[in-house]
């Protein structure tokens, strides 16, 4: 019995690592193996199934992800039920349509018929408007009227220092 739990923990950890790395297909296989080693009604069984839902999403098996998530909404553990309800709400949410201009198509690398590399051409950057720089001759035309800021700042400094000395 202890050996079975150790096997489960090893498979579950491996599945989580693969899931975190984005290796969803491998993760599904390992997590399904882990699921078969533990009671699905236990909290650990629920956790491995929640991870499996995420892995199914990663390989675009949305029907399997939704079906498993709906199953988990009836799980004996309250925390698993609540998490699965939140995930199910997200899975069933309507997909927003995005304009094609917002997306860049990335070719898959595991396809045999895609031997030649394809590149997406970037849109040309808009030219920045260059601000004219000031030359030494132009500085004579700048307005240099004294607005009294330095006098005000110096006066406040003297008042603060005087107040601190008076308080001591």
Describe the structure.
This protein is an all-alpha fold and 168 residues long. Helix content is 55%, strand content 0%. Helix 1 (2-20) runs antiparallel to helix 2 (24-36) and helix 1 (2-20) packs parallel to helix 3. The longest helix has 19 residues, at 2-20.
Attribute tags:
Serine Threonine Protein Phosphatase 5, Tetratricopeptide repeat, single chain, mainly alpha
User: How much helical structure, as a percent, in the residues?
Assistant: 40-55%
User: What is the makeup of the main sheet?
Assistant: none
Give unreliable regions as ranges: none
What are the secondary-structure elements, in order, as H or E?
HHHHHH
CATH class of the domain at 2-91: Mainly Alpha
What's the topology here?
Blueprint: H1 2-20, H2 24-36, H3 43-58, H4 62-72, H5 78-91, H6 149-167
Helix pairs in contact: 1-2, 1-3, 2-3, 3-4, 3-5, 4-5
């Amino acid at each position: 019995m202890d050996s079975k739990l150790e096997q489960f923990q090893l498979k579950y950890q491996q599945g989580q690592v693969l899931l975190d790395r984005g290796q969803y297909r491998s993760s599904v296989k390992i997590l399904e193996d882990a699921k078969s080693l533990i009671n699905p009604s236990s909290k650990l069984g629920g956790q491995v199934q929640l991870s499996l839902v995420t892995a199914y999403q990663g390989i675009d098996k949305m029907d399997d992800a939704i079906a498993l998530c709906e199953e988990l909404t009836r799980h004996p553990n309250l925390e698993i039920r609540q998490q699965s309800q939140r995930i199910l709400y997200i899975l069933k949410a309507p997909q927003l349509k995005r304009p094609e201009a917002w997306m860049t198509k990335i070719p898959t690398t595991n396809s045999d018929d895609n031997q030649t590399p394809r590149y997406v051409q970037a849109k040309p950057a808009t030219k920045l408007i260059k601000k004219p720089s000031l030359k030494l001759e132009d500085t004579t035309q700048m307005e240099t009227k004294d607005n009294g800021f330095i006098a005000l700042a110096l006066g406040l400094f003297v008042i603060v220092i005087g107040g601190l000395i008076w308080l001591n």
